[in-house]
Amino acid sequence: MIYGYIRVSTDKQDCENQKLGIEQKAKSLKLKIDKYIEDAGVSGTVKAKNRNLWKIVQKGKHGDWLITSELSRLGRSTVDVLETCGILAQKGINVCFVKQNIGLDQSPMGKMMLAIMSAFAEMERDLISMRTKEALARIRANGKTLGRKLGSKNKHYKLEGKEHTLKKLLQNNISKREICRKLSISYPTLRKYSKI
Questions:
Q1: Where are the domains of the chain?
Q2: Catalytic site residue 9?
Q3: In angstroms, what CA-CA distances link 131 with 30, 45, 141?
Q4: pLDDT digits (tens, 9 = 90+) for 106-155
Q5: Which of 68, 101, 113, 123 could form a disulfide with 5 if both were Cys (CB 3.0 to 4.6 A apart)?
Q6: Distance linking the first and last C-alpha atoms of the chain
Q7: In sequence order, which residues have a C-beta less than 8 Å from that of residue 104 and are 6 or more positions away?
Q8: Is 132 strand, coil or helix?
């Protein structure tokens, strides 16, 4: 299966330009696009797992292709793009970026490109972590306390306004796991509430 992936963050952007580039690249690779997956009006900051792109990750099989116009179509952060590419590579799905002329396939060159990109993503993660630690150290050095003040309590609780529903579920002998799922809460939250 040959997938063409198009993402435009605003409706004003033209999908046709991306489609044209994808079609030309597919033709040069002697491939024909079987299906287009589109994310219209979706920002690159939205994680791949929360976009239509994930359909390719889920349904794709070894030997399939994903052709997209450029790296930034898969995501804005290097880490997110690389995680997605890594999952696609594990499944044996070949990825091609038209504008950068990069192919992440099962060839030695494709594997090398993925390794290089992964190294850059790891470096980006380390730099973000280092900057965060430096900022926190500076805040502490200025005498500011991080986090909630000692002894303070939450003023809002996840189960606020759901008391009636919770009591009804408990009376109907619904399992605690099911209650947590229905109310979108964790088990410790339910246990803590039950003790009150």
A1: 2-121, 163-195
A2: yes
A3: 46, 20, 15
A4: 777 777 777 777 677 677 778 888 888 898 889 889 988 887 776 666 66
A5: 68
A6: 56
A7: 85, 88, 89, 94, 95, 96, 110, 113, 114, 117
A8: helix
Residue 183, φ and ψ in degrees, nearest 5 = -95, 0
User: How far apart are the C-alpha atoms of 82 and 58, rounded to whole Å?
Assistant: 17
Beta bridge partners of 95: 66, 104
- What single-letter amino acid sits at 35? K
CA pair distance 34, 128, nearest whole angstrom:
39
Alpha carbon of 14 to those of 23, 38, 50: distances in Å? 15, 12, 22
Question: Which whole-number Å values give the CA distances from 70 to 9, 20, 121, 130, 135, in the listed order?
Answer: 14, 13, 17, 29, 33
> Which residues, other chains included, contact 70 with Cβ-Cβ below 8 Å and sequence gap of 6+?
97, 98, 99, 100
Structure token digits, residue 186: 């964790």
Q: What is the number of residues in the chain? A: 196
**Residue 174 C-alpha from the chain's centroid:** 33
The dotted CATH code for 2-121 is 3.40.50.1390
How many other C-beta atoms can be found within 10 angstroms of the C-beta atom of residue 39?
A: 20
What backbone phi and psi angles, to 5 degrees, belong to 131? -65, -40
Q: Which of 9, 72, 77, 118 is catalytic?
A: 9
For 176-185, write each residue's pLDDT tens digit.
Answer: 888 888 888 8
